[in-house]
Structure prediction request, 211 residues.
Amino acid sequence: MQDLAAPALLTLGLVAIGGYLLGSIPFGVVLTRAAGAGDVRNIGSGNIGATNVLRTGRKDLAIATLILDAGKGAIALLIARHLFGETAGAIAGGAAFMGHLFPVWLGFKGGKGVATFFGLILAACWPLGLLAAATWLIVAFALRYSSLAALVAAALTPLYALLPLPALGLPAPASILILAIFTAVLIYIRHHENIARLLKGAEPKIGAKKT
Prediction:
């Protein structure tokens, strides 16, 4: 048993490192700099995600950032799952999510993880991802708060993972449930400023112009 345990742990460790490095690629920074749009960290909120990239006035860069940020978590999970199984996939995906939030290249100051979260959950279990995305759309449309929509979607995703819907692959495997909980907790941590503004009624709504 010990002879088998060491290679397994080594594999999972390498999967985690690979996932983190892939997730830590700051596409928002890379794309805006390459396009001559400046450093996105010096614009608007200073966040490296697609929403702040949009403040450069370049919709094409914002869309590309959104797709790439969502894709890097999904790719990390899918490759690791294909090669080493479900647990390895979840570890790689979680590590990629950590990489996006805390990239070593930017002093561990990364994005808030919403796009990466949705890409990750869609890759992990597409019905679960669709439920999470539908939740975001409903809350965002009804209340006009993007951050609140993300927080509600993140909180409900672990509960969706427990739904007894075998035709849709639910309940999800334990590794995916743990991944959903892990990413939800980190989203809440990274959105602490948004939560404070929501409680004060100071969070800007979707479409509102900043003063």
Remarks:
- The chain has a mean pLDDT of 92.
- DSSP finds ten helices and no strands in the chain.
- The radius of gyration is 18 Å.
- The longest helix spans residues 59-84.
